[in-house]
Amino acid sequence: MSALRPSASGGFSLSRLGLRLAGSRRFQLIAERIPLLRRFGRREGDALFDIVAGFVHSQVLYALVDLRVLHMVQPGPQTVAALAAKAGLSPDRMQLLLQGGAALKLLKRCRDGRFDLATRGAAFLAVPGLEAMVGHHHVLYRDLSDPVAFLKGETDPDLARFWPYVFGATGATDPEVTAKYSRLMTESQGLVAEDTLRLVDLMGVRRLMDVGGGAGAFLGAVGRAYPLIEVMLFDLPVVVAAAPARLEAEGLGGRFTVHGGSFRDDPLPKGADAISLIRVLFDHSDDTVKLLLSRVYDALPPDGRIIIAEPMSGGAAPHRETDTYFAFYTAAMRTGRTRSAVEIGELLAAQGFTGIKTFPGPRPYVASAITALRPSAVA
């Protein structure tokens, strides 16, 4: 009975007994002879090995993306030799990659030995921005090659230099860097816009300003969904340079204005009754977020609304994707962190916002949303 320890409520903790049994090799061997326990144990064993092998799975996916193998088989089944020639690999190495891709259900192996696109692979190609996201993961993987040194702060992450605008580099003019930044932001914004607009109703909003909105991908989605809303875009001058052409192409001619500036140095333009921050807060430190929220508060009229959407930590109930992938990603950027909805709500309340509402996303790794109001003016 020593395994039954007093719990905080004064009873005994069966969970501690479960942990002790799960950690006993003798119990594991006994459980293998009991059907119900055997199924449970093997399921846990599979999940544990999936964690162990996770990095290799990611590398297989990266190679498939970088070599464009999924695109090669999209028209129909291909032989190993044909794919090897197109990708510049030896047939045995291509076989290795294809077998791995099939094991991950991105590809499927045909009876004649050729390989075709699987349902999961087709879905991968259809998700806006997913290829671009995977395509830059080599930077993140390098930064996490020594995770202990990374956690101790003994490394100099390359990812911090991949996103120069997060540091407020208003003078950056390198066209290649600007194009890379804008392209990845635009391509990865589609799903975020879809989920945000499912979660947050913008009916009644007259003019929406998107702060940190890049070339206007989110505002383009807003304009299509709400034909009467006027939109404003605020971001660094070098980033918003391509926005007018994009917004015109989206059919927003006569309904948009574009403002170049840095919220670190400049007050936000006024005139919007709602301001959105889409995947912005988790790029920045608490001090920077406080400054940004204070500028949003000052720019909004009484009863004006702030809309925040981004992947959020699970907080007290850690979430598999956001508390691993995004938490470590934002830590590698060195400028921000992945916060829970509770933490964001506290930051909003500290700046004077009220009526804070949280909208958990159906895909937390894409976005959850929070809205709040600037209070009505006191008579």
List keywords for this structure.
19 helices, two-stranded antiparallel ribbon, 13% strand, Arc Repressor Mutant, subunit A, disordered N terminus, 379 residues, globular, alpha/beta, seven-stranded mixed sheet, Rossmann fold
Q: How does the major sheet shape up?
A: 7 strands, mixed
Structural class: alpha/beta
Give the number of DSSP strands. Answer: 11
Shape call: globular
Report Rg. Answer: 25 Å
The quaternary structure here is single chain
The total of helices stands at 19
Q: What's the pLDDT, averaged over the residues?
A: 87
CATH homologous superfamily assignment of the largest domain: Vaccinia Virus protein VP39
CATH architecture of the largest domain: 3-Layer(aba) Sandwich
Distance between the termini: 67 Å
Query: What fold name stands as the CATH topology of the largest domain?
Result: Rossmann fold
Domain O-methyltransferase C-terminal: 141-353
Protein name: Hydroxyneurosporene-O-methyltransferase
Domain O-methyltransferase dimerisation: 50-125
GO biological process, one term: methylation
Question: What's the topology here?
Answer:
Elements: E1 5-6, E2 12-13, H1 14-22, H2 25-31, H3 35-52, H4 54-66, H5 69-73, H6 80-87, H7 91-103, E3 107-109, E4 115-117, H8 119-126, H9 130-135, H10 137-143, H11 147-151, H12 159-162, H13 175-199, E5 207-211, H14 217-225, E6 230-235, H15 237-240, H16 243-249, E7 256-260, E8 274-278, H17 286-299, E9 305-310, H18 322-333, H19 341-350, E10 354-359, E11 368-373
Helix pairs in contact: 4-7, 6-7, 13-14
Keywords: Methyltransferase, S-adenosyl-L-methionine, Transferase
GO molecular function: O-methyltransferase activity; protein dimerization activity
Organism: Cereibacter ovatus
